[in-house]
Specification:
The protein is an all-alpha fold. It has one domain. Helix content is 86%, strand content 0%. The protein contains six helices and no strands. The longest helix has 56 residues, at 126-181. It is elongated, with a radius of gyration of 25 Å.
Length: 185
């Protein structure tokens, strides 16, 4: 679940390392730039994002459960997956459980990152600045990954709704055509 955010963080760290090798003087000046410009912005940004995710987490999870996982069509799809694709019957709510865990981790790392910028980020040291920036990369990529997972769940929901509405519209269209073609007495 955390592979993608870790890979993105690693790529960003490699990028910082390469810049430090190409322009060694620029990395030495990283702390003043971080202290004067980015630390307060990163602190307030991650604190805001963590608070927002905390506020909407329950709404997102409950809404997805009611709209997708409690529906008959989803239960039928899961039964078909169990029968035809060797899925585990216990995996009925696995997507929702994974999303809940991912939202929790995003909230945790957002608040942790904000606290790191407020505490360790105040220490006038290159390593402390690099640690805070690295944690920012990881938290940001974790938030993006969470957003992608939420979008995937909403896409599944909309696809199923489209299928349901298409069936209803086809039924109504057929009934309408039958009423037009039937002779009236």
């Amino acid at each position: 679940m955390l592979k993608m955010p870790l890979i993105i963080t690693l790529i960003c760290e490699i990028f910082l390392f390469l810049i430090s090798q190409i322009f060694p003087d620029s990395i030495i000046n990283l702390f003043p730039i971080y202290r004067d410009g980015f630390r307060s912005l990163l602190f307030s940004g991650f604190l805001t994002v963590g608070s927002f995710l905390f506020a909407v987490q329950a709404f997102i999870i409950i809404r997805l459960k009611e709209s997708i996982f409690d529906q008959d069509w989803y239960q039928e799809e899961h039964i078909q997956d169990v029968i035809f694709h060797d899925a585990c019957i216990d995996d009925y709510l696995i997507q929702l459980k994974n999303l809940t865990s991912l939202l929790f981790l995003s909230i945790l790392f957002s608040v942790l990152t904000a606290l790191m910028h407020l505490s360790i980020g105040l220490y006038p040291n290159f390593i402390a600045s690099l640690l805070c920036i690295s944690l920012s990369f990881f938290s940001f990529s974790l938030i993006l990954f969470t957003l992608i997972q939420i979008k995937g769940n909403f896409d599944s929901w909309l696809k199923a709704l489209d299928k349901i509405y298409r069936t209803k519209l086809q039924t109504k269209e057929l009934a309408y055509r039958n009423n037009i073609n039937s002779p009236t007495s």
